[in-house]
């Protein structure tokens, strides 16, 4: 059952859009105009549902979730929307009749790359699931003019290119200038007495307009499209006429430029915060705009602000949107005349916080003086929250200054956003079982003791619509042929795949699909990067942001080890394997960029050596993004999930690979632990130190990487390749920095991520997974088992858990 649109109507709509929007016939139109006409025809259908649903939601008095996130990594929308409206097949047929090809049309759409990695992509999966489950939601963020940079590889290095994704216009967005709000920065505060008591006057501030752009996000067969609201910054006056009239045109433009820089660019750091002023401006910009919007809307619909928590709940995606809390306090008190206690009570019922990382460098802190100058009133409010919070701690821990100053929101001239979230929010959650435990027992231990009921762990998920139905149409078709298409709406139905694991025909078809996907990736890489790969080798994939804790370097050392084996003994059998890496490094992260140089140098060595070039092939896929992932993941045999145990909060790539029938080679980290529980010991390859082992070594400082170097010859020989001149690099910089970091390190911290510790067990696990692979009967069952057990990693399950434990939203009930 699709949306009620006949093929004839689809055709008319597309041709009509071409004619009316672009004044073109099909013959005259460009590919871009054809894409836009298709997109507009789909948008009409969605917007109609969206408008009805939002009205209906108000009539039914439903609570709405606001999901605040500095990032939404959406990718492309066109085909996803066709799938979710059940119109894909009809569109494909109509386009074929018109002599067009959907794949080419799809490529006209630019990825909405408004995110760095896991955190932003999770937000995108959540919108899809929320809509699919008919829960009302608005996601709020910034309409970055430049999304995450595009990555090119030039002369063996990463080069960043700007991503001007709005250049050719964006057909999905609807500007709503009538809902603009003003966001104020800087200035001074003044206390004045009025009849209603003490009032805070904010003077000499400068303000920026926030203009919302709304995107409907269509879930699968949904009655309740989600809204993604992106705020764009604009100056209050386009030109300063005072300067303009004197002929100083550049000065006349200055204010405009200063204002608009706020929504110009997404900071490209993943799992890292640097405390820069513009970043703070961005965070206040979108949170202030969102809170003003919520209050305005609530007053218009319901009048009384005391009922706010009955109609709104807010999820803070990592600490980036934390300023929403003091901003709501400010609005309720300064603009609406509410008292502190009432306002605080409302905030503590509305807000919830998700933590996504325990990496110290990612914990958001702001220098107190800078903060105070930029946001004086918000600073004051945080200070009062802090004072009251510390007072309450004093009652629990009298005299324990150390503990209290560790838990304080402001301490040592820094404002710590995670502490603010925990002090105020109703619930605080981690993103996997293990991560949930780690935040309770280590990261936020002192808080957990005081507020045991606040903390929970909710394991992440991924949407099977994008990561199966969209990315892997052949596999989706195979599954539909056997178990129907119910699994796309009800993840529990995926369990039925397990019944097929004794069906030889199914398993053979499953592997044939994998083979076709590998050919598809082969052709794609040939076309986009001119790289040749052999689909009859194992595809072993490490794809995620480049970060030392994700240990791309461990994988490289292992490849060097295999290379050494072959060079040492040409008779040795090594199963032919293609090692695919895909990773962006943050532009300022020097060591991460060096690791990319190393991967490319190793590729050069291994791929060009006649002794190894047909056995080992190393490929670096440029510009990893949602659209690249959609091609890469379905083609993968081995999924590398090899982070240092305890450091990957959850991982979601691990789930995408699993769902697409790849087998995991991984550590007991994040959600790998739960993948292990789901598929069982026989269908996953686990290696390396556990989180407990690592934390013991950390605590007692007992880890001595040099020992492993001395004792493990394979490891030593692999590592020596980094400095012995084997690797050719364009500008002659060798890899001594990486070598040094593993053996000597900085400040006595060598090999912080335990690569040398885990090397031997990784090598062993790799051998095991390869012997499983060559046993075709064993492998196909294993691969299919991974897909069969992936239902619980659907983000629909995740959203249901959030809803039961935190949000308590009601679905829109049947209409009419
Ligand atoms: C985790 N980003 C994954 C994923 O929960 C997890 C932090 C600070 C500044 C900029 N970006 C960040 C993250 O912390 C992040 O993406 N975390 C990731 O969140 C979703 O699956 O393990 O690393």
UniProtKB/TrEMBL annotation:
Keywords attached to this entry: Carbohydrate metabolism, Glycosyltransferase, Pyridoxal phosphate, Transferase
CC terms in the record's Gene Ontology section: cytoplasm
Cofactor requirement: pyridoxal 5'-phosphate
N6-(pyridoxal phosphate)lysine modifications at: 656
GO biological process, one term: glycogen catabolic process
InterPro entries linked to this entry: Glycg_phsphrylas (IPR011833), Glyco_trans_35 (IPR000811), Pyridoxal_P_attach_site (IPR035090)
Pfam family membership, one: Phosphorylase
E.C. number: 2.4.1.1
GO molecular function, one term: pyridoxal phosphate binding
Protein name in the entry: Alpha-1,4 glucan phosphorylase
Lineage start: Bacteria, Bacillati, Bacillota, Clostridia, Christensenellales
């Amino acid at each position: 059952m699709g949306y009620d649109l006949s093929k004839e109507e689809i055709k008319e709509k597309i041709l009509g859009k071409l004619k009316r929007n672009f004044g073109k016939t099909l013959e005259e139109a460009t590919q871009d105009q054809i894409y836009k006409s298709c997109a507009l025809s789909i948008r009409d259908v969605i917007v109609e549902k969206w408008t009805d649903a939002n009205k209906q939601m108000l009539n039914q008095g439903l609570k709405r979730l606001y999901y605040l996130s500095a990032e939404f990594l959406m990718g492309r929308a066109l085909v996803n929307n066709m799938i979710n409206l059940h119109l894909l097949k009809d569109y494909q047929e109509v386009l074929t009749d018109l002599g067009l090809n959907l794949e080419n049309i799809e490529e006209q759409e630019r990825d909405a790359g408004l995110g760095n990695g896991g955190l932003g992509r999770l937000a995108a999966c959540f919108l899809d699931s929320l809509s699919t489950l008919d829960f009302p939601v608005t996601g709020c963020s910034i309409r970055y003019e430049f999304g995450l940079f595009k990555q090119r590889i030039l002369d063996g290095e990463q080069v960043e290119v700007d991503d001007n994704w709005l250049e050719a216009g964006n057909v999905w967005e609807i500007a709503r200038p009538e809902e603009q709000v003003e966001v104020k920065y800087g200035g001074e505060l003044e206390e004045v007495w009025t009849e209603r008591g003490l009032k805070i006057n904010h003077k000499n501030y400068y303000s920026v307009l926030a203009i919302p752009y709304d995107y409907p996000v269509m879930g699968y067969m949904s009655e309740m499209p989600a809204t993604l609201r992106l705020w764009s910054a604009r100056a209050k006056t386009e030109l300063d006429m005072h300067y303009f009239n004197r002929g100083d045109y550049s000065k006349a433009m200055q204010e405009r430029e200063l204002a608009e820089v706020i929504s110009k660019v997404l900071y490209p750091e993943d799992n890292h915060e640097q405390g820069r002023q513009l970043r703070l401006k961005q965070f206040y910009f979108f949170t202030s705009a969102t809170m003003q919007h919520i209050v305005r809307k609530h007053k218009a619909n319901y009048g009384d602000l005391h009922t706010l928590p009955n109609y709104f709940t807010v999820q803070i995606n990592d600490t980036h949107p934390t300023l929403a809390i003091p901003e709501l306090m400010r609005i309720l008190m300064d603009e609406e005349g509410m008292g502190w206690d009432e306002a605080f009570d409302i905030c503590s019922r509305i807000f919830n916080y998700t933590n996504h990382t325990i990496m110290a460098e990612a914990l958001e802190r702001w220098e107190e003086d800078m903060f105070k100058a930029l946001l004086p009133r918000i600073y004051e409010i945080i200070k009062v929250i802090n004072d009251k919070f510390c007072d309450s701690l004093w009652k629990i821990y009298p005299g324990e200054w150390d503990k209290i100053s560790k838990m304080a929101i402001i301490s040592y001239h820094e404002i710590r956003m995670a502490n603010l979230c925990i002090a105020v929010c109703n619930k605080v959650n981690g993103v996997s079982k293990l991560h949930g435990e780690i935040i309770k027992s280590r990261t936020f231990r002192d808080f957990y003791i005081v507020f045991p009921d606040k903390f929970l762990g909710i394991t992440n998920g991924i949407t099977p619509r994008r990561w199966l139905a969209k990315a892997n149409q052949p596999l989706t078709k195979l599954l539909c042929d056997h178990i129907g298409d119910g699994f796309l709406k009800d993840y529990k139905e995926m369990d039925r795949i397990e019944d097929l694991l004794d069906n030889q025909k199914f398993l053979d078809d499953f592997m044939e699909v994998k083979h076709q996907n590998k050919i598809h990736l082969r052709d794609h890489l040939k076309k986009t990067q001119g790289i040749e790969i052999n689909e009859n080798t194992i595809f072993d994939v490490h794809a995620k942001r480049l970060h030392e804790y994700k240990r791309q370097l461990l994988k490289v050392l292992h490849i060097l080890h295999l290379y050494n084996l072959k060079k040492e003994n040409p008779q040795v059998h090594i199963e032919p394997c293609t090692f695919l890496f895909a990773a962006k490094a943050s532009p300022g992260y020097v060591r991460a960029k060096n690791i990319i140089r190393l991967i490319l140098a190793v590729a050069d060595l291994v791929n060009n050596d006649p002794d190894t070039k047909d056995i080992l092939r190393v490929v670096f896929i440029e510009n990893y993004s949602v659209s690249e992932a959609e091609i890469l993941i379905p083609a993968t045999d081995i999924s590398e999930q090899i982070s240092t145990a305890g450091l990957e909060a959850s991982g979601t790539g691990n789930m995408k690979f699993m769902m697409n029938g790849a087998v995991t080679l991984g550590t007991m980290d994040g959600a790998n632990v739960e993948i292990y529980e789901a598929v069982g010991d026989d269908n996953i390859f686990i290696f390396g130190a556990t989180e407990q082992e690592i934390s013991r070594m950390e605590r007692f400082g007992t880890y001595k990487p040099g020992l492993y170097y001395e004792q493990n010859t394979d490891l030593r020989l692999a590592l020596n390749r980094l400095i012995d001149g084997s690797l050719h690099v364009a500008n002659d910089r060798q890899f001594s920095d990486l070598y040094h970091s593993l053996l000597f390190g900085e400040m006595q911290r060598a090999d912080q991520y335990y690569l040398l510790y885990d090397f031997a067990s990784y090598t062993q696990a790799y051998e095991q997974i390869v012997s499983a692979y060559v046993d075709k009967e064993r492998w196909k069952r294993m691969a299919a088992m991974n897909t069969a057990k992936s239902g619980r990693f659907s983000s629909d399950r995740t959203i249901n858990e959030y809803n039961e434990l935190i949000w308590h939203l009601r679905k829109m009930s049947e209409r009419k």
